[in-house]
Amino acid sequence: MARKKAEVKVEEGKKEEVKKEDLKEKQEESLRLSDLPGIGPAAVEKLEAAGIFDLMGVAVLGPKELSDISGLGESVSRKAIQAARKMMDLGFQDGLEFAEKRKEVSYITSGSRELDSLLGGKGIETKSITEAFGAYGSGKTQVALTLAVNVQLPLERGGVEGKAVYIDSEGTFRPDRIKQIASAKGLNPESV
User: Fold this and answer.
1) What mean pLDDT, rounded, does the chain reach?
2) Confidence check: pLDDT of 5 > 60
3) Which helix (DSSP H) or strand (DSSP E) does residue 125 occupy?
4) Other residues' Cβ atoms within 10 Å of the Cβ of residue 144
5) DSSP 140-178
6) Using CA atoms, how far apart are residues 148 and 58, in angstroms rounded to an integer?
7) Which residues contact 175 (CB under 8 A, 6 or more apart)?
8) In the predicted model, what is the mean pLDDT of residues 5-13?
C-alpha cells in the first residue's frame, strides 16, 4: 500500500515537471522577433530572409553580425541580443558578472604541498570539477577521502568549513579511513 502511494507521488512529480517544461516551451514559442526592442517589421523580414526565425537565433549572434544582417545599428543590435537572452533565460553573463561569481571560489588543500603546488599552489578549486585518474592502487581514493575531510577544516588550515558528499561508485568508501584521517588532523572523527 505504501509503495503504491510513493509511486503515485513520483508520477505526480513527473507530471508537474512535464507541465513546467511544456509551459516554458509555449512561452518561448509565443515570443516573437518583433517583441525585441528596436526590431520592427523590416528588420524581422531581413532576419527571416537570413534564416533567423526565433529568439535563439538572435541570442547567439554578436552585435556586429546582427547589425549586418538586419541593417540595425550596433547599439540597437546589442540591446536586442541582450533582450533575447534575458527573455529566454539562457544563463549568459558578461565578464563582470562572471568575475563576481569567481570571488566565491575557494580552495581546499589536498593535504600534500607537492600536489597543491602542481595544482597552482592553492589546492583543489571549489565550484569546479577536478578529475583524478590512475591505475589501481595509485591513491585516487585516498585523495578523495582526504579532500572529504579537508573541506571541513577551518579556512586557516586549508579548508572551507564546508561539508562533503561522497558518491561511491566503486565500493571503496571506508568510514574507518575517514576517522583515521580526521583524527590525524585533530578533528572529531565522529562528527566528520
Assistant:
1) 84
2) no
3) strand 124-125
4) 16
5) HHHHHHHHHHHTTS-GGGT--S-------SSS---HHHH
6) 44
7) none
8) 47
Place of cell 509555449: 26
Question: Where does the pLDDT of residue 65 fall: very low under 50, low under 70, confident under 90, or very high at 90 and above?
Answer: very high
Pairwise CA distance, residues 43 & 70, whole Å: 5
Q: What is the pTM of this model?
A: 0.55
Q: Which residues contact 81 (CB under 8 A, 6 or more apart)?
A: 58, 59, 61, 62, 63, 66
In angstroms, what CA-CA distances link 60 with 1, 54, 64, 90, 146? 51, 11, 12, 10, 42
What's the pLDDT at 15?
53
Q: How far, in Å, CA of 88 to CA of 32, rounded?
A: 11
What cell does 156 get?
586557516
Q: Which of 36, 37, 42 is nearest to 56 (CA)?
A: 36
Angle ∠(100,56,76) on CA atoms, nearest 5: 75
Complete domains list, the chain, with CATH: 2-97 (1.10.150.20), 107-184 (no CATH)
CA–CA separation, 31 vs 37, rounded Å? 12
**How far from 93 is each of 76, 85, 99, 181, CA to CA, in Å?**
19, 9, 10, 40
pLDDT in tens, 125-143: 998 888 989 998 999 999 9
Mean pLDDT of 154-161: 93
